Amino acid sequence: MLISFNWLSQYLQLPGGVTPEQVAEKLKLSTVEVEKVERLGANLEKIVIGKVLKMEKHPNADKLLVCEVDIGQEKLQVVCGGSNVREEMLVALAKIGAKVRWHGEEELVELKSVAIRGVESQGMICASTEIGLCKMFPLKEEKEILDLSGRRLKIGAPLADALNLDDAILEIDNKSLSHRPDLWGHYGIAREVGALFKTKLKGYSVGKFKKGNDFDLRVKVAESKLCPRYMAVGIDGVTVGESPSWLKQWLLAVGLRPINNIVDITNYVMLDLGQPMHAFDAANLSSRQIIVRLAKDKEEFVTLDGENCKLDSSMLVIADEKQAVALAGVMGGEASGVSINTKTIIFESANFDAVSIRQTSMKLGLRTESSARFEKGLDPSLCELALAKAVELVLEICPDAKVVSNVVDEARWHLNRGIIELSMEFLQKKLGVDIKQKEVEEILKNLGFGLKAKKNILNVTVPSWRSGKDIVMAEDLVEEIARIYGFFNIPSQLPIFPIAPPEENKLRNLERRTAETLVKELGYTEVYNYSFVSTEQVKNLGDDLSKYIELDNPLSKEKPFLRRHLLPNLLENIKKNLESYDELKIFEIGKVFAAGETGVRAETNSDELLPRQDTWLETVFVNKKDNTPFWQARRAAETIFQSLNLEWQIASLDKVCVWEHPTRLAILSHNGKVVGVIHELNPLTANAFGIESRIGVLKINLSKLAEVMKEKIDVYKKVSVYPEMTRDVAFLVKKEISHVEIIKTLSHVDQLLKKVELFDVYAGDKLGIGKKSMAYHLIYCHQDRTLTTEEVNKAHDKVKTILKSKFGAEVRE
Amino acid sequence: MLEQFKKIKSSALSAIHLVKNLADLEVLENKLLGRKNGELTGLLKGLKDLSSEEKRIVGQAANDVKQAIESAWAEKKLELSRVEWVKSSEKESVDVTQSALPLSKCGHFHPITLVKNKLEDLFISMGFMVLDGPELESDYYNFTAVNIPANHPARDMQDTFYIKKHPNWLLRTQTSSVQVRAMQKYEAPMRAIVPGRCFRNESTDARHEHTLYQIEGVVIDHGINFSNMKAVLEEVVKNLYGAETKLRLRPKYYPFVEPGVNGEITCVLCAGKGCRVCKQSGWLEIFGAGLIHPNVLKEGGIDSKKYQGFAFGFGLDRLVMLKYGIDEIRVLKSGEMKFLEQF
Predict the structure, then answer these.
(1) Distant-in-sequence, close-in-space partners of A647: CB < 8 Å, separation ≥ 6
(2) pLDDT tens digits for range A59-112
(3) What average pLDDT score do residues A155-160 get?
């Protein structure tokens, strides 16, 4: 919203010398976000009113013209590319040395005398964007120059003077106003500024008018909940035409394009008081009866700007006996609007339910200045003031106009205006600072609150414009006082807490420790991917789409599902980066969504459970030269569990998911619970994702692991003072014999055998198909004495015998 | 015999004096002190044939001679070693600027993780628990419980992803969704932060993302007030951005707090002078905060007459972008290795 400083100043006696920038700064620190203060006349030196006398085609450029421009004292030759330039046109002419923004860019550039394609140009005919006036004169098309024709302007006069540009415009962020319906007009902002500068707000004066009796205006409000107040009056004898320049000036200053005097008046009142109004052409209404009702399902309606809408039965309309003539609080209808021929108008000044307006405007995608205000919840008492102001203006601007009907006021509204009890003690307790009661009272009074003090307790009446949802309890008053008093004036005081340490978050610690190991020890890089996957990704993975949770309103139709695995997006990361890398090690830690599995409670007192959302770690490894990246995935698992000091078991798995390599697949368990999987990606799946290389995958359910985690307790074993003896054994076995089985068997062979360590595995054609060679270090030791060679030989022979008998091993001697 | 010792001493000392390198010194050592044929060794062996009286006299002298030779020899050896070391150390020179080979590659944390960990550690040191909550959340905990009832305009401010077939399920738009869950579980008094992923259904561009990270904080205890909130958050920003960083609070509306503020720090890039990043204002908005609304405490089962609290929320993506000067938010979730390898 744009606020004119001059407009505000009409309502306030600001202390001398207060600048618009100072007002903006105070508003920023205590009320709303002011994004910018723009001095309208700033940087307009050496820009004057000019008149185009002659124009000719540029000899060397099709799209340029050479104009002769009269600027009073002299005539200048100017090259111009404006699409709308014509002879006799009044323009803003920047002389050499003026500051302009090329093509509306931020930076100001000083204009120099140049030759454009061989023709000298002694200045520039400006577009509104080039001289910072685009808010006042928005561009209709890209190459348009500012057309000032039709105004009584002195040729050669400085532009700033000619257009009375001594105002400053405060640009306020509408979002920062969403909870303050009272600030959607200049008068409301003025009240706030008054409180900030401790200066009194002038009363809002409007003249009284006599009601007429030419016709009897009737309003039937069928939905008084959605329309708590509806005021209307008829005025005859209006002449629709251009507004007087003072009115146009105000509107232009705050970025509204003047349309005609009647519409301009309704807009002016809205910008002044914050109350949207509407004017109907009485001739276009089928009756003198206005009906406020719900639309019928599929009722058709054409808006002022010619848009066809299909309504539904939740939408409130203003109708005559035949049809809807306006979408209540959102936009008027094409059929009933004011036109050049209008003689009799009916002014509407009404109050509508905020939620209803919001929903209607959202459903139809029609967001207007009017709906933006109504949906914040306006003060119904404003209707009266706004109507009186509008009538006053019409009577002033159209000399023949007179009120010809009764003034309708269909009203069923009630405001909760308190009383709210506020004790000084409560205020102190909330803010941690003692503010003098006198100061508190002054702040509240300046904001329009009614006060009755009983010692340290204030009984506060809420003004109509702040009642409703805005101020309902003492905490709300605390905020009012705190922000006007100034947050910067409240001292800082650290709270005092007991020194008890916080409860540990096991999952979070696990996430951090695994990431630490992957990054620092294993050289993996962490990615953050989106939580969404596409139909195609699920299909490429070979997963079941029905197990996926779907968004009702996805941002892109492409990725409507919530991820069940981190893998698909990790594969896309691989695909994307593999062109520039021979090896990639990537991991992600994040939540996945499991349809059909239940998680935490959805609401306080309900049995409904949300879907389970575990945090998983998934790593992918690819090296273009490595055809068995399973080992790298396994190494990652080993290193992680070692660094966590956790025992873990691995086993092969029969149940295979489509994307898993069926014979390079294992499950990971800890403390008797399955917590993860190591596998190679099925090469066909990799191909589906556009990847030719083999990929090693590790997946750990960190939520599960955090739940069952039990740290390994390493009990001290006395170090043997007697020497160890190491013997190696190498043998050939069938490929199916697993290392785990061998270890398990050997661990029981002999008490002297303390440690079995795998150091080599080899499989090749030379050994015969289905065979592999394995080699182990065997470490023998006795706790109490030195071993004899005979003893070790005996134990070692036992090992060989068992290997032969149990696994059919061919031991190499 | 005494003469012999004298002679060997003078000849040995002058020989040692003349030696030019370690190899010659070794030869000389052998010649004099060698176990089998050493001149001095041989002479010393002869001592055993002397009478005890002679032994006493000659033995003393022999010992002095031996020591003199040995110490001259040791001195010479040290001297020659130093000379040789200077020569050989020159030969052993390496290019210290060259990397250790083969190269070992460390991985990289995501920048959001780096900033998140730092904040977590800070808050843990201040006695905060670190909590987590579901990303797919109920309408109740995301909105209603934090004082955003149905049809509240604030719901528009946060465009929401809803779940098909479950009209009351959504993707949380804010980590504030964990506030009431935490109150119900831990009750008052309580101090906790909630780092986590949030979602907004808005189109992405250089500054907007549909997937973002927040850190929510909640403090509930007896007599918690605005002044406490201001002080705690000042400590936080000073820890993050340096002791000279200034914090200012400005009013901002959030339905779950009253009063609500947003926190701005002196711009970290221009130190408050005004630059492109702070839009010439000298201030950067980095969090929202406020005293917890009594309605929210009530939903959490906490008596607002007995306990008060404050809550705050940082946008992690924004902190990361400020810290590393990143001007394109989407790059954070691009999975682009050339980007990630920089951290």
Answers:
(1) A641, A670, A671, A712
(2) 988 889 999 999 998 999 999 988 899 999 999 999 999 998 877 677 888 988
(3) 91
Q: Indicate if A736 and A683 belong to the same structural domain.
A: no
Residue numbers of B between 33 and 72 with CB closer than 8 Å to A: none
Position A202 in a domain: no
Global model pTM greater than 0.90? no
Same domain, A529 and A440: no
The residue among A370, A388, A411 that closes a domain is: A411
**What are the structural domain ranges in chain B?**
2-91, 111-340
Answer yes or no: do A603 and A745 share one domain. Answer: no
The number of C-beta contacts closer than 8 angstroms across A and B is: 236
CATH number of the domain at A112, please: 2.40.50.140
SS3 A692: coil
Any idea which of A640-649, A704-713, B277-286 has the lowest mean pLDDT?
Answer: B277-286
Say whether A658 sits in a helix, a strand or coil.
coil
A313 in the same domain as A242: yes
- Residue B280 contacts A, CB cutoff 8 Å: no
As annotated, the binding site of B for Mg(2+) includes 258
CATH of the domain at A590: 3.30.930.10
Q: How far is A383 from chain B (nearest CA, A)?
A: 23
Residues A586 and A622 in one domain: yes
Residue A181 shares a structural domain with residue A278: no
Q: Which residues pair with A349 in a beta bridge?
A: A231
Helical segments of A335-465, H only: 354-364, 369-374, 382-397, 424-431, 437-446
Residue B102 binned pLDDT confidence (cut-offs 50, 70, 90) = confident
Pick among A358, A427, A555 to test the B interface (most B CBs inside 10 A): A555
The domain boundary, picked from A431, A455, A489, lies at A489
* Chain A from 476 to 505: CB within 8 A of any B CB: 476, 478-479, 482-483, 487-488, 490-495, 497, 499-503, 505
- Same domain? A644 vs A536: yes
Q: Which CATH superfamily is domain B111-340 in?
A: Bira Bifunctional Protein; Domain 2 (3.30.930.10)
Domain annotation covers residue A716: no
Q: What pLDDT, on the 0 to 100 scale, is given for residue A245?
A: 84
Task: Using an 8 Å CB-CB cutoff, list chain A residues near B189.
Answer: 497
pLDDT tens, position by position, A458-508: 999 999 999 988 899 999 999 999 999 999 999 999 999 999 999 999 999
- Identify the band that residue B60 occupies on the pLDDT scale cut at 50, 70 and 90: confident
Give percent above pLDDT 90 in chain A: 77
**Binding-site residue ranges of B:** 258
Instruction: Point out the residue among A522, A526, A603 whose CB comes nearest to the CB of B113.
Output: A526
Q: Is the dihedral of CA A192, A195, A196, A202 positive or negative?
A: positive
pLDDT of residue B277: 82
Q: Are B157 and A178 in contact (CB < 8 Å)?
A: yes
Cβ A555–B157 below 8 Å, yes or no? no
Number of domains observed in the structure of chain A = 6
CATH of residue A429's domain is 3.30.56.10
Same domain, residue pair A122 and A66: yes
Cα distances from A293 to residues A231, A289, A296, A312, A364, in angstroms, run: 15, 12, 9, 12, 18
Angle between helices A739-746 and A789-807 (to 10 degrees): 140
Query: Is A498 inside any structural domain?
Result: no
Residue A482 lies in a domain: yes
Q: What are the C-alpha distances in Å from A309 to residues A5, A313, A352, A375?
A: 38, 13, 20, 20
Structural domain for A272, as ranges: 218-411
Q: Is the ipTM of this complex over 0.90?
A: no
